[in-house]
Design goal:
The complex is a heterodimer of chains A (about 400) and B (about 35). Chain A is of the alpha+beta class and about 400 residues long. Chain A has helices spanning about 5-25, 40, 105-115, 115-120, 145-165, 180-200, 200-225, 230-240, 250-265, 270-275, 275-285, 295-320, 330-335, 340-355, 360-365, 365-389, and strands at about 45-50, 55-60, 65-75, 80-90, 95-100. With about 35 residues, chain B is mainly α. Classes of the chains: A alpha+beta (about 400), B mainly alpha (about 35). The interface of A and B includes residues 105, 324 and 364 of A.
Chain lengths: ~400, ~35
């Protein structure tokens, strides 16, 4: 066995072991105690009686009269499950709500926390539809989190109304899988990118590549603002797979790229579809940037990137939060908003893109590191299979 | 001296700056979750 191969095997195995240890630590972390928030959820209540799984009856201490109910409901946000504790009065109206546990990227969750989303739902009856745009205003740039909070409050108020207050059941429309323009474009881009590289060459391939990159930048980037990120990879690893009815796009993106990687051994997504890659390519054309590739330092930068990604995934697994270690600059550029630090980071990357071709993709993006590791795992499994066979 | 003004140095500076930003981004997220 070559020395390089042996080193790679040892490092690959150590990576796997440390990731498993991080995941075990994360699984053993205690969840939050919701009873600490009861006073805020139902003011006036002082005595609580458990009446179901994470459902409590609340009474006032003085007269021992029923003040309302508190229950916890879970929905899928952008980073993973999001738990909302909801206080409901005896008539079935929402008194207050509070996110007690979430897996969202903190800076993006702050947008929802600082908004008037919860206030807008106070007083809503279980009969209300809780529709974004009609009943409640959505929050730009935090669509998944907003939807998860609203769904949880709606589910909580309906559960109390049906199970505790014995109010009549409402007729609800069966949920349909959302398959629209973004999903169609994503599928087309992945297919054109993969088959374009396989069957086209020269100028035709160059044209196809620019077409898929620009379409990716417009739709995957600016329209949907959901390129493949470390959050998606972490969600996949942690099993925080979202509701297919609302986030079919996530399944198509994550499993589409994974399928292409495993079947072709090539990372066509980065080369043909990635919207941030397209932004950097456009800047490279403007600045007449050249590749600063040097064989001498290639190994160092490759392992540096892998180390950063390994550390980021370990942190996410330990905290059971896919968004905690997200460091990409995509959301800042495609939502055209972010904190001062995020904007400064983005500007630095964009300025360097004028002089060096795709610097983010070459030195920092987690997707190539992830695809390298997948290839490694696939290779070892294949070798093991052949040895056994 | 040659390395100091080379493209490789330019890239090294870029990566170093980005890693500092990444460190602060992740640490900021961890601290905001802990506290």
């Amino acid at each position: 066995m070559k020395r390089g191969n042996r080193t790679e095997n040892v490092v690959g195995l150590c990576t796997l072991v440390t990731l498993v240890i991080a995941a075990v630590i994360g699984l053993n972390r205690s969840s939050s105690d919701i009873t600490a928030h009861f006073q805020i959820l139902l003011p006036g209540a002082e005595r609580y009686e458990k009446s179901g799984f994470e459902t409590y009856k609340a009474f006032s201490q003085a007269s021992d009269s029923l003040v309302g109910y508190i229950t916890v409901k879970k929905s899928n946000g952008f980073g993973g499950p999001l738990k909302v504790a909801v206080g409901v009065d005896p008539a079935g109206a929402v008194v207050n709500a509070m996110v007690v546990e979430h897996r969202e990227t903190p800076s993006w969750f702050a947008k929802v926390k600082d908004s008037s989303l919860i206030d807008a739902m106070k007083g809503k009856s279980y009969k209300d539809r809780f529709e974004i745009g009609n009943d409640v205003d959505g929050i730009t740039g935090a669509t998944y989190t907003t939807r998860a909070v609203i769904q949880s409050v709606k589910a909580a108020s309906r559960e109390i109304a049906l199970n505790e207050l014995k109010l009549p059941k409402l007729d609800e429309k069966p949920r349909r899988i959302q398959f629209g323009f973004p999903e169609i474009v994503l599928l087309l881009l992945l297919a054109i990118g993969t088959f374009g590289i396989k069957y086209a060459s020269g100028k035709t391939l160059k044209r196809i590549r620019w077409l898929t990159m620009l379409a990716g930048m417009a739709v995957v980037g600016f329209m949907v603002n959901h390129p493949l990120t470390l959050v998606d990879i972490n969600k996949f690893l942690m099993g925080y797979w979202p509701d297919v009815h609302f986030q079919l796009y996530w399944y198509l993106l994550t499993f589409g790229v994974l399928l292409i990687l495993l079947t072709t051994d090539k990372n066509y997504y980065c080369h043909m579809v990635c919207p941030f890659g397209a932004v950097q390519e456009c800047l490279a054309v403007l600045g007449k940037a050249k590749s600063a590739h040097s064989k001498q330092y290639h190994g160092f930068f490759k392992w540096l990137r892998r180390s950063v990604v390994w550390l980021a995934v370990c942190v996410a697994l330990i905290f059971r939060n896919p968004g905690i270690s997200s460091y990409e600059v995509y959301s800042t550029i495609f939502s055209l908003s972010g904190t001062n630090r995020e904007v400064l980071f983005l500007v630095i990357v964009l300025v360097f893109s004028l002089f060096v071709r795709r610097p983010w993709c070459k030195y920092l993006c987690p997707v190539p590191a992830f695809s390298d590791y997948l290839r490694f795992i696939k290779g070892r499994i294949k070798a093991l299979f052949w040895t056994v066979a | 001296m040659k390395f100091l003004f080379s493209k490789q140095m330019f890239v090294t500076v870029f990566v170093a700056i980005c890693i500092v930003f990444i460190f602060f981004e992740i640490m900021g997220n961890i601290l905001s979750i802990i506290f």
